[in-house]
Amino acid sequence: MRHQGNPWLTSNLFVLGIGILPALLMIGVLLYFTAWAFAFSFTDLALVGRKSVEWSWVGFDNFERLFTRRGFLESLWTTIYFVFFSAIVGQSLLGFILAASLRGMRGTLRTMIEVSIMLGWLVPDIVAAFLWSATTSDTGLINALIVVPLGFQPVNFINDYALAVVTIANIWKGTAWSYILFSAALDSISRELIEAAKVDGATMWQRVSLVILPIIRPHIATNMLFITIWTFTYFPLIFAMTGGGPGRQTETLAIFLYNQSFSRGNLGFGSAISVAMLLIVGGLSLIYLRMLREPT
């Protein structure tokens, strides 16, 4: 028998077409700018000067420069460190632990903890950068309350341990997303299923690893997909706290791209960096999307 479509849909195709126009327009704009980024990555286009109007094609020179000169590979390694410890280990793991710990909790204490978790997410990036810079400076809160009272000399954490500080700051800033997602995922699991595993003699670790984690695997993959993309391309907090310094200790690819494109005016080389970032993030996204598929 021939498949019959929804009568309303088949009789209102014009209305549906009007409705999806904004989405198509947005997709078109994204593809347009992406295409220009690809095109400019093969040029010596500059932000100012003669090359800003009289640029020329240079082939794969910009991409060769990524791997033959200092800067890109060092920033890539810094980004990998930042993404792994800030997003994958920090936000995801901490978000799951908090969601699992607070699942059975009710009352004012849970509300206060959830407000504290959400606070980091709601605070603007610039405000968060100021708070963490002030807290970790040699005259900041950590030194005033902990280091100096214990008889030690003040430590300028934001200068001496810059990458660790911005990593911790980003964990504080972004854990709320993972907490919300994992809270919803855990609430969807039947309590009878957990109780049945407990009756069967499963330990807490066995219940988590053999029952809970397989059920929420798609949620884990979704969370990892979003926080990896966000953290890999994250810019405001790091730039406001350190500007990529001291030296180049916190120069992630996003900051390296900004410095090359706007501070030095090398738009062609900056476009090559953006294309490389797009390919890396695209590859990671494909891995997570495979994780979202149900096992056969």
From TrEMBL:
The biological processes this protein is annotated with in GO are: transmembrane transport
Keywords assigned by UniProt, alphabetized: Cell membrane, Membrane, Transmembrane, Transmembrane helix, Transport
Membrane-crossing ranges are 12-39, 80-100, 112-132, 161-182, 225-247, 267-289
According to its UniProt record, where is this protein located? Cell membrane
Superkingdom: Bacteria
Give start and end of each ABC transmembrane type-1 domain: 72-290
Spell out the GO cellular component terms annotated for this protein, sorted alphabetically and separated by semicolons.
Answer: plasma membrane
Topology term for the membrane: Multi-pass membrane protein
Q: Does the keyword Cell membrane apply?
A: yes
Q: Which PROSITE patterns match?
A: ABC_TM1
Family from the record? Belongs to the binding-protein-dependent transport system permease family.
The identity of this protein, by name, is Amino acid ABC transporter permease
The species this protein belongs to is: Devosia pacifica
